[in-house]
Amino acid sequence: xxxxxxxxxxxxxxxxxxxxxxxxxxxxxxxxxxxxxxxxxxxxxxxxxxxxxxxxxxxxxxxxxxxxxxxxxxxxxxxxxxxxxxxxxxxxxxxxxxxxxxxxxxxxxxxxxxxxxxxxxxxxxxxxxxxxxxxxxxxxxxxxxxxxxxxxxxxxxxxxxxxxxxxxxxxxxxxxxxxxxxxxxxxxxxxxxxxxxxxxxxxxxxxxxxxxxxxxxxxxxxxxxxxxxxxxxxxxxxxxxxxxxxxxxxxxxxxxxxxxxxxxxxxxxxxxxxx
Amino acid sequence: xxxxxxxxxxxxxxxxxxxxxxxxxxxxxxxxxxxxxxxxxxxxxxxxxxxxxxxxxxxxxxxxxxxxxxxxxxxxxxxxxxxxxxxxxxxxxxxxxxxxxxxxxxxxxxxxxxxxxxxxxxxxxxxxxxxxxxxxxxxxxxxxxxxxxxxxxxxxxxxxxxxxxxxxxxxxxxxxxxxxxxxxxxxxxxxxxxxxxxxxxxxxxxxxxxxxxxxxxxxxxxxxxxxxxxxxxxxxxxxxxxxxxxxxxxxxxxxxxxxxxxxxxxxxxxxxxxxxxxxxxxxxxxxxxxxxxxxxxxxxxxxxxxxxxxxxxxxxxxxxxxxxxxxxxxxxxxxxxxxxxxxxxxxxxxxxxxxxxxxxxxxxxxxxxxxxxxxxxxxxxxxxxxxxxxxxxxxxxxxxxxxxxxxxxxxxxxxxxxxxxxxxxxxxxxxxxxxxxxxxxxx
Lengths: 275, 443
Fold this sequence. Notes:
Oligomer: heterodimer
Largest interface: A-B, 37 and 45 residues
Number of strands of chain B: 18
Radius of gyration of chain A: 20 Å
Strand order of the largest sheet of chain B: 5-6-7-3-8-9
Order of helices and strands of chain A: EHHHHHHHHHHHHH
Helix content of chain A: 55-70%
């Protein structure tokens, strides 16, 4: 709550006021994220074990299909390790994106009753997927130790790719969250796109199987350089990373962020009228 | 010294509402409307003859209409004011509160607020059924704008106010609904902003709890804080507020510190000026003891009086209502108020001795009660239906949920040429005068 400051409410919001509010309401951000984490596995028998089971079984299924049946190359590491490295960012991306997209609709009752910067809702709900990511990361460490695969100095670049993943999910998530509120069609569209995305992104296979001349075009899907970047920083061996495609990916992620944030902020003040 | 802590100038809020029956919310509708428009442009509007006119209209801009929920609202609220905002449903009360709470933005105008504001448009906003009472206190507190430190400081007070000590670590979904409301209100009651905006929170909970809430609000109001309060409960407004605004169709029609006067005038206009008959809208409440159907002023046999009653005639208050469950303690009657809102009296069908009172039966009942001739003064009165289970429960509570009609008395004041025009006073009975023979002292 604001003390000693005059608050002006009119048709166009003062931008300065908005960012101050965002700072004032930082505790609410924390509490909403904390709530989502608490609630996530309530009244489940297996509880947090789900955060282990989901990626583990996804890994087994993808390994079976792409490694055993299609017999795709593994670039010198056990195939399931390759797959798990790809699943790590994909899972974070898809959970954060779908969480953020649905967040405004799911919390419509709060939006129509209380003011706070609405940016808090999708971000706090996306942040919770980082918990699952961390669990999966520990799981990967275990698998790599078991298989005797050790990372190299390149692991220091991991935070860069983590940030890219989250930014991609956030940019699209903000955009879709605002759109979902107005057009509920996006509730169907987002899961559908994510389902397709799992197969058009190199999650179950290595991006190196894509012919060289198509690589740059392929990296217009920002998840391509992100997933390849994860593998590059986590796995040993001689694996070239195409930094041009990383650059393209970063530019596209940046574009997502700009479009998503702008659209969100531009429509935010009318959310309560649209819910 | 009092200064304006809230200052509202030229505030307006426009909604675009759909006047047609077809929903155009889905992406499909937008896309197809755009495509149609595009097709029209591309074909120069000539190639679409096959398209029925109706479709064109439904998807066209004519489907939308501007609706001003609020228009040209201006007022100042000074420090320490408890301002009641009254008006019938759809008058714009909630929209006004939503703008002041920044939930929605105004279309025109500006509001300046000089202190910390907290708004309470609902109790228990954001409560999560899976979380425990303790967790929900922190969650709800944060949503209402309290800091973690504030909540921790007041945690024990909140818990004891709500009376849920034993269930702090139980998920809220295991609570009774009464407990949830108590907990929610307890959190809200411990908000300590300079300005509090409240919308009809008293409409929840039982009578006992409402009393508690009113008490707490009274405390807040008398503590020198500024409160904006929307309610349909006129008793609450009258008790709590030291100023009131009456809204009608999005505009302020009255703003004054004379709360009593405003309420009187509001109640007067509420059911439409001068209507001497009320008929149920058909939406039956959950009330099985007595559900009012029709209330009107008529003559003794029930023929409605459409305009005014002459004071040479009796006026009859006719009440029709349905009884599903017969209860011995059911009392049905009316309260009558003058134009300033002063209560004259209550009258019940149970007022006479056991053997002389009308019996009620299951199904439709028709009662009538006589207002004697030359009893009330010339003027307009409001007759409000009241019903209760005696000493147990209000079914139709005066000022809250009861339908009311107008009784107009005009002319026929007396047979005397000296009393032809209205005298001051609420009553105007023609009373008997006697004289006594006395010895003539002049002789």
